[in-house]
Amino acid sequence: SFWITNPDNQFIGNHAAGSDRYGFWFNMPITANGPSYDPNVCPQYEQLGEFTGNVAHSNGRYGLRIFEKFIPVTNPCAALAENASGRREQPNPAVSAPIVTHFRDFLAYKNLFTGIILEEAGALKFHNIRTADNVIAGMEISMTAAGPWLTSSDDYHLQDALIVGASENIDDEILHAEMSGDTCGVKGSRNEKMRVKDTLFVNFDYNSIFAAISTCSHCEGCGTD
């Protein structure tokens, strides 16, 4: 429904429903490309305008997808360091500091894969998120890219959230899909420093392959044997 190639925009009170794949897709290139090519515009590292009060439901894959990375920093293009191949890929903390970025009041339900999925996340914080009846997971973070920003006990990727495995309003099709595979509330990252605080997990007791929290995104299923 929403294909977003630059995060410096405002998304407030929108509904994304019934898409073949994604409700909201943040798909930022390293630099602006195509007819708008500009080496001085670096969307993967720019600040988010605002993302508040949005809803994504009944999408074919994800409610909200951030792929391949979103690492907001204070000086987006100057922050990029060249790798061995000469490509500018990773933020250089000596040049530019991470910016804490907030996604607020997002509701994701009845998506056929995951409510919220992030491939590589910087200092992103999700507040008052609600997910329910998503087949694979409520939220999944594959990698945390800006670990040094987590310096105090108040820094969390997910806070004050409600994650529901199977609600009273679940569709038979989604319940069958959940019962046929692994379903979990939050799938943790493959590296360190993903944090969750003050989050309520409800109805993950349908069978032994349901789990409220699972580790190692894209490694194994949510089951606990």
From TrEMBL:
Key words, A-Z: Signal
The keyword Signal belongs to this UniProt entry's keyword annotation: yes
CEMIP beta-helix domain boundaries: 1-64
Keyword Signal: yes
Superkingdom of the organism of origin: Eukaryota
Any matching Pfam family: CEMIP_beta-hel
Protein name: CEMIP beta-helix domain-containing protein
Native source organism of the sequence: Euplotes harpa
